[in-house]
Amino acid sequence: MRQASKNHKNMQGLTLTELLVAMTIGAVVLVLLAQAVSSMSRWSITLNQTHAATEKTQGLFRFFRERLLRTELLTLAGEDGQQVLFEGTQMQVRLVVAEYAYPARPGLYEQLLWIEQTQEGAWQILFARRALSRLDEFGQQPMEEPVLIYTGLLQPKFSYLGEENWHTEWADPAVMPKQIALSLPDGPSVQVMLPAIMTQETNPSETDLEAPSNEA
Fold first, then answer.
1. 64 and 25 within one domain
2. Predicted confidence (pLDDT) per residue in 129-141, tens digit
3. How many CB atoms lie within 10 A of CB 175?
4. Residues 130 and 172 both lie in one domain
5. Domain span at residue 125?
């Protein structure tokens, strides 16, 4: 008789208290699982954004380096003596590069990189160029349609290395800086030593040059 009563009690199942405890534990487990999944999702998004930003910055630096490595050290006689065909401020760099192969026709090109802020507050770096047929036209003629090469929330800056110190503006018209740097606030930077400074190539003496076509 006692054995039958015990078996009947075991068959009654969980009490209400036990059921509530089990449901509470299950709810806590589900909340923790949801938080873990949400954290992993946010971490994945942040990682992808960081990776994309890194790739964009590296692409910008590669383009900047590739442009500067083609810089030509050219001078033009002025009222104050020989002046190099170079202009540099914190917000723009204007120089002359030599193109040797496709897609551009071989020749000299005036190139301009400049920084500007959009109405939405983003910062951009734009690039434009034009075929340079005469040295005395440097900085005097309109450029081709600009190309956007960078956009971001951080303001890029150019700087220039003289004999010892870095400068935010290049003020010596007689010589070119030893290096040019492009940097982002609290971020990476790239410094390029101009090959024209390293090699001290002889400057063309003719004012008239063969004009390359405007083909991209």
1. no
2. 999 888 888 988 8
3. 16
4. yes
5. 60-199
Which amino acid is located at 14 in the chain?
A: L
According to the model, what pLDDT value does residue 198 have? 43
Distance from C-alpha of 126 to C-alpha of 63, rounded to nearest angstrom: 12
Q: Scan for tokens 């006689």, then name that residue.
A: 77
Q: What percent of the chain has pLDDT over 90?
A: 25
Looking at the fold, whether 16 and 65 belong to one and the same domain comes out as no
Look at residue 171 and give its three-state secondary structure.
coil
How many domains does the chain fold into?
Answer: 2
Q: What is the pLDDT of residues 83-114, one digit of tens each?
A: 889 999 999 999 998 887 656 678 899 999 99
Any domain includes 39 = no
For residue 116, being part of any structural domain is answered with: yes
List of E strands, the chain: 75-78, 81-84, 87-88, 92-99, 107-117, 123-131, 147-152, 157-161, 166-167, 179-183, 189-193
Number of Cβ atoms within 10 Å of the Cβ of 156: 22
Q: Find, among 206, 213, 195, 215, the residue nearest to 135 by Cα.
A: 206
Ranking 99-108, 126-135, 181-190, 192-201 by mean pLDDT, the lowest is 192-201
Q: Is residue 211 part of a domain?
A: no
Is residue 111 assigned to a domain?
yes
